[in-house]
Design brief:
Blueprint lengths: L3 E7 L7 H8 L8 E7 L4 H11 L3 E5 L5 H22 L9 E5 L11 H4 L3 E4 L5 H11 L10 E4 L2 E4 L16 H6 L2 E3 L2 E2 L17 E2 L2 H13 L4 E4 L8 H14 L5 E6 L6 H7 L7 E8 L3 H6 L6 H14 L3 E8 L6 H14 L3 E6 L18 E2 L7 E3 L5 H19 L7 H4 L6 H16 L7 H12 L7
Parallel strand pairs: 1-2, 1-3, 3-4, 4-5, 5-7, 8-11, 11-12, 12-13, 13-14, 14-15
Antiparallel strand pairs: 6-7, 9-10, 16-17
Helix pairs in contact: 2-3, 8-9, 13-15
Length: 478
């Protein structure tokens, strides 16, 4: 059993939480009285409940993100039912099994006091928790005065407002990845925090400072992970290639050490590919380099509206370079439903991106994250969002609900048909070089939805047959 349980519900089992490990690594003397419990989104609720109850924690802390908001609330509701049932039998002895609930993470930071999830919490941490969480636990378990929190943050009611931590002083947490994590999961790492850009759909735009972890220590940590057998490194840095010299040193480090099937994954700014970085990217063997490149829109006026730097020609040139000169697997993002974007302008952005041929086009729907500055456009652009996570836009003044629903269906079938690579033999027939790719696939996605009545849970062979018929004949089995 543990006095402190650090818990979260990950999107998938293969995604371990670096945030929880950082909290535990910086708990000081209390680290030995804590444990980490990670669950998967699709894991049965009763398994999550029983694992937490078995620890009987005095403090139960959850890291909450947009994808696990509802699941975390459901878990807390189920736990509360158990605590209420057991509290009656324990009341005579003056004890109660219900722990103190602490919530943190980007999703809870800007929720209102009345939000059901916030109502479940005794404390809510807003900001980086490595220091304030330790002080809070010392207060709750040892009776230490909360005044000792003042160097690291401030309090108001149940809210703790954390100041940004010193990345030179906090302890790294890579030793807390288990051997199962190393062998079978993605290993999340970070060399910097923050983003200098002001994209208003992103919470990073609220604080545009970029702070870096001392490079020598970071590379020692990476070497340590490699020595333990780590083979999949996913960087959390929002703008990895912001500092060219620093990016070069990290790229050099991995280039010298990483061999297939191992790989490293970076999020890069396409308009900032220096010649020296390009030369290094060209040297990575096939399969060892994955890049996430945020495009979001090629419509200059829309990009300006949301505070996003835009250089479409430079971005498209960078994508062509990656396709023609490197072995990188490139994931490029577009967002539908941005303020002022029309169906026609979105289609144009999609076709321009398709012409550059990244490995994957990831189509996202605009989300209004709690606290994000994108909210300032609600009235001028008649933005209507779902009020429940993931807070997706439902309609705008320039894009109807029906059009956005069609794009959502398009995105789902694009993932099934194109991104997953199961039908590469058919894609050239579905999307001829000279065709309007967006228009062609929009018609196909509507046809597939009509045929199957859904855009999920479709048997691959049945989907292949439908695609082959659309192309004009059965083109074999796969």
């Amino acid at each position: 059993m543990a006095d402190i349980v650090l818990a979260t519900i990950n999107a998938k089992w293969i995604h371990p939480s670096l945030a929880l490990r950082l909290l535990q690594a910086n708990l000081g003397e209390l680290a030995g009285k804590s444990c980490i419990l990670e669950f998967a989104l699709r894991q049965p609720l009763e398994e999550k409940v029983s694992a937490i109850l078995a620890e009987a924690p005095r403090i139960l802390a959850f890291s909450v993100s947009i994808w696990n908001h509802e699941a975390t609330l459901a878990l807390l509701n189920a736990l509360e039912t158990n605590w209420q049932a057991t509290s009656k039998t324990e009341s005579d002895s003056g004890t109660c099994s219900k722990p103190i609930i602490v919530l943190g993470g980007p999703e809870v930071s800007y929720l209102s006091e009345s939000a059901p999830l916030i109502q479940k919490a005794d404390w809510v941490v807003r900001g980086e928790g490595e220091e304030v969480f330790r002080v809070l636990c010392e207060h709750l378990l040892w009776g230490k005065s909360l005044q000792s929190l003042e160097p690291f943050g401030s309090t108001r009611g149940k809210w703790i407002y954390a100041r940004p931590v010193s990345l030179e002083e906090i302890k790294s947490a890579y030793h807390l990845y288990s051997y199962e994590d190393i062998a079978r999961k993605l290993i999340y790492v970070e060399a910097s925090r923050g983003c200098p850009f002001g994209c208003e759909f992103c919470l990073s735009s609220l604080d545009r400072r970029v702070r870096t972890i001392p490079l020598e220590q970071f590379l020692l940590d990476m070497d340590y992970l490699l020595s333990r057998g780590a083979r999949s490194f996913k960087f959390l840095d929002r703008t990895f290639n912001l500092d060219t010299e620093r990016a070069e040193k990290i790229l050099h480090f991995f280039l010298e050490r990483i061999k297939p099937p191992a790989y490293v994954h970076f999020e890069m700014v396409p308009s900032r590919f220096s010649d020296s970085v390009r030369k290094l990217l060209m040297q990575f063997p096939p399969g060892t380099l994955r890049l996430e490149v945020g495009i979001q829109t090629f419509t200059a006026e829309v990009a300006k509206t949301i505070g996003r730097p835009s250089n479409p020609e430079k971005e498209r040139e960078a994508l062509r370079f990656l396709r023609e000169k490197t072995n990188a697997i490139v994931h490029a993002d577009l967002i539908a439903g941005l303020p002022g974007e029309t169906m026609e302008s979105f289609a144009r952005s999609f076709n321009l991106l398709w012409a550059a041929r990244p490995t994957e086009i990831q189509l996202g729907i605009l989300k209004k994250l709690p606290g994000a500055p994108i909210a300032r456009h609600d009235e001028p652009f008649a933005m209507v969002y779902d009020t429940w996570p993931p807070y997706e836009v439902l309609e705008t003044g320039t894009m109807s609900r029906a059009e956005l629903d069609a794009i959502k269906n398009f995105a789902r079938f694009w993932e099934l048909v194109v991104n997953r690579g199961h039908f590469d033999d058919l894609v050239p027939l579905l999307l001829p070089e000279s065709a309007d790719a967006f228009g062609a696939f929009m018609e196909l996605s509507k046809h597939l939805l009509g045929r199957f009545g859904r855009n999920w849970g479709i048997d691959r062979q049945e989907l292949r047959q439908a695609l082959a018929e659309w192309c004009g004949g059965a083109l074999g089995q796969g």
